[in-house]
Amino acid sequence: MKSINNILQVANKELYYQWCSKKIAILLFILLFLSIFHLIGLHNRVITSYNRYQRTEMTYRENGIDIVKALEQPNNVYVENNSKITSNPLKDDFISLAIAIQSLKPRNIISNTLEYLVFVFCTLIFGIYAAYVATYDFRFKTYKFVSVGDNQRDIILGKLLSVIITMTGTMVFVLIFTFIGSFIVNPIVVAKVPVKDFTIDIFNYEYGIIPQLFLSFIVILFYVIVGFSIGFILKSMLIPTIGLLLYGLFIPVLGAYDFRNIISYFSHQVFTFTARFVMFKPMPINEVLGILLTLATAVILFVVLFTVAKKRSAYS
């Protein structure tokens, strides 16, 4: 019980510093900016899709093709050399527009915001932020002062807990903001596009919002653990930051059990990726092995983290 209280006290101090130093505000500003950009992108996607549909419809009419009958015809889609070939362009544009409209609906906005933020930005943002929290005492030469009265384990867990609380709080705030924002953007779209004419019942999530939130939390948490552990072990924010950026943005997927492929595999089980971001199609994996490999990596990082911390004198 005493250890838990110590961890909570450390976390409270860390949160207080992060708040007073405006780091949480900066983090929240970045996420809000990305969510606004996402809402604008969804709006623009509807308008672009509607304009494309109108052009295709006009072409059909000029060629004397009945629009209603054309939309009733099947649409066969082929992908060749990264290009999509469709047998019924009008129906294809109709479906694309309907999906774009549905993506902005409040019932779907949380899901596609998670797709856009978590798998594009948040793994890097929170991984780097965790490295920052793990190392700023080394950077500002305050580690001896911080370590007075607390053992290494409590300090590490308190710092990590503060990152998790910040991660959860900011993401909840941003998702609520985006949900409210959808009620503002939808009337703007309705004023420009006859949305009732483009309704199809194909935009349903099989598992619902709870599994999506859970998976998103686990994915971000994994990157938080990686960034925090490497940062603390090496006493450097620069190394994990460069490593996360290179791994996330430049290095291609290295195989079926590359963590990005594992994440993609499980994300495709609960997300549709029909909005603005499409996760790459993963290579097949053994689900149990994928979970065990991810857990083992987190455990190994923790073992090394606490081993290094135990060997350090006065948190140095």
TrEMBL record:
The keyword ATP-binding does not apply. The chain crosses the membrane at residues 24-43, 116-135, 156-189, 209-230, 237-257, 288-309. Keywords: Membrane, Transmembrane, Transmembrane helix. The keyword rRNA-binding does not apply. It comes from the Bacteria. This is ABC transporter permease.
